Amino acid sequence: MSVGTPPLVNLAHSDPNSAPQDISPDTEQQATPQNASPHLVRVKRRRHQPASEDPSKNQVFYFVDSNSSSREKRAHVMRHHVQEKRKQLKHAHPRSDSDKRVHRPLRYLSWQQKKLLLNGDDNEVIEHKRSEDEITPKDFSTMPVGPQIPAPVSYSVSPVTLLDASGKDPFDSLPVTCTREDFILMDCWTNRLTYWSGEPRLIKDQVFRAVLNHPLPFQSVVLAYCARWRAQAYGFKWSPEVEQHLGRATNGIEQVMKGDMEIDTDSLAMALTGMAIQEERFGSKQHARGYVDQAVQILRSRSGSNRVAEAFLHYVQFMLMPLHPAVPEDGQQWLVTFLRGAEELMLEHSTDAYLSSVPQRRSAFQMDSPLFPLLSSGPRPSHVPHQSRIYIITKTAPTQELTRTAALIYITAALWDFQGSPSKTGRFLDHIRATVKYHELDRFPACESFVWLLLLEGYEADLQEPERSWSTNELLKLYKQLRPELQFLFSEILVSLLMLTPPIRGIDVFERELYSSMPEVQEEP
């Protein structure tokens, strides 16, 4: 939206056609201090207009404080003049019925009314003081825009104002130079992309802050990913902005590998992880595995890595689907052993002696617990409005079921780690229960956000165990290779054991059906 300079007001006189015609008594009363006598400033007419029976209709008065300086008086008159002009402009522009009902200005939809952002060329950039080694975007043609989908009020972007018109990044916080199209992509990441379960704002905000440390992860995780999602959402396999941002991300990774670009290991791991998830969803699954393997080598070989970088890697690994859905023999044995250990743990936790020392264990996973909506098999109706479902990241991948099973595995493994300490078990259960209620995941279940919180390990240091996340991922890999009916049985057994209830179809049934498929698995290439 073009933002012009407001007209100056001459305190001596003003054109009545441009000045407001009536001032409400309430406004006058608010503008006059109680402890100061009002001082009237008469705004005379510039031209001689036809005489009116009521001279007050052609004159506008503003109450000002007589004790104020001339500068303060002028500023006071200017504020009222600008307010009245805005009211006139608002009434002069037609609006939709819904906007008239709620008395709000026109909504700005970034993908429909691109011209509202700023004046000038579409590819005008906002410069940042950065080194020459950093990635800077070049001019490029925008992709064709598909059918216009109106955004809901909760997802709408704030209108451009005089404050932000001077610079979209006034504090120089972004690691790259950005065009208007880049800001649209950032808006997709921060305000629009969602799952069926709802917008994972916690995940997106923490990842966004983490990638601001270096241009390469910002380019890979935010700009390149959102460009590929945007092209896919509008039915394009490729677009100029995809070619631009993907090219910068891949070239940056190549420069790092050659030693031509300096970057810390956590930022490099996040850049590789960002490339992996976008290849998984919009490109080559084989390439996704290659990027993940490189990120694993970086973070696995060192200790003390950034918690968000490691959680992001595990989270993306949870989303990767196996290339060959065949469980190896040793993997089958590991799954059965894990279930047997969970059953042994359930029997121990069911004793009166244990429940007397950890009373919260009895009710932690029952139907009235905040954890039950997240760990049970559902159903989970979507909270995303129908008109906003274009922003769902992927409509086919079972992200809820994958993250639910990952949470079941993680919690069971944690309880096994705390087996010899009732105190640790109690504190762990109290923490995850309080965390779920704090983020309102009991009211709006989102397994994706829940498992993210588990990966961050926000509890006391003696409860943290980074190896737990790595082992959870390895078990989940085997789970994803099971047949769908065995996947359901595996997760239902874990839920029953956490509820201290013997499963209806137990581990023996799972083991028998699992091993009965071994000949078929061995025949697969």
From TrEMBL:
Biased composition (Polar residues): 15-37
Region span, Disordered: 1-101
Residue stretches of biased makeup (Basic residues): 73-93
Highest taxon, organism lineage: Eukaryota
PANTHER family hit by this protein: SIGMA-70 REGION 2 FAMILY PROTEIN, TRANSCRIPTION FACTOR (ACR-2), PUTATIVE-RELATED-RELATED
Protein name (record): Uncharacterized protein
Organism: Aspergillus tamarii
